[in-house]
Design a protein that fits this description.
This protein is α/β, with parallel strands linked by helices and 200 residues long. The protein is built from eight helices and seven strands; from the N terminus they run ααβαβαββαβααββα. Helices cover 38% and strands 26% of the residues.
Length: 200
């Protein structure tokens, strides 16, 4: 889903970046995002501020994907020539080889995507066995509040944290750690082998 004009501005302002750095990224780190020299994928990379945060992990490689070319164009402001950015639908990432990424980070963009369940499936395909997925998302009541008062116009995608947890488990993820505060959920989930699931 493309962001509305008001959402686009909301995602590219100092308040959003402050929250991303001091709340979301800090939560990711406290839940286990500490591994250095890994192959990292960021879904919904936006203007590239998350890239700066993830660069502190000194990744072996980094790929940021976003549906909006306008967002990808903004990544140039950070002069991150050593990292790759692509315009891509996260629900269909067939350009990315299976089992090629060690870590995936999603900073609060999943609830914007009508086909978010397909994104979870793609995350499992792209991650190595034992790979780590970090997600931060608002729950359904927070999304509804934002729509009523800020007119963001989120899709009717029946997204909630409970549904997200079910989808993770159904796609061969084990939720290692999670934190819920004031209607926001942060998750560290680990991918396990599909053959292991079949044995169970």
């Amino acid at each position: 889903m493309r962001l509305s004009d008001i959402e686009f501005k909301a995602m590219n302002n100092p308040v959003r970046r402050f929250f991303q750095k001091h709340v979301e990224f800090r939560n990711f780190r406290s839940l286990g995002l500490v591994d250095k020299h890994k192959n990292i994928l960021e879904i919904g990379c936006g203007s590239g501020y998350g890239t700066i945060l993830l660069s502190t992990l000194q990744p072996k490689s980094y790929l940021g994907v976003d549906l909006m070319p306008e967002q990808i164009a903004l990544t140039g402001q950070w002069h991150l020539s050593e990292y790759a950015f692509k315009t891509m639908d996260a629900a269909d990432m067939n350009e990315i080889p299976s089992h090629s990424r060690d870590i995936i980070a999603i900073f609060g963009i999943l609830h914007h995507i009508p086909r978010w369940r397909e994104v979870i499936k793609e995350c499992r395909r792209v991650l190595t066995n034992g790979g780590k997925l970090f997600i931060e998302e608002p729950d359904k009541n927070i999304i509804g509040y934002c729509d009523r008062f800020f007119h963001y116009g989120h899709p009717e995608s029946d997204f909630s944290l409970a549904l997200l947890e079910n989808e993770l488990v159904n796609n061969c993820f084990k939720i290692i750690r999670k934190r819920k505060v004031l209607g926001f959920g942060t998750y560290y989930a680990q991918a396990y082998s599909l053959t292991k699931k079949r044995r169970h």
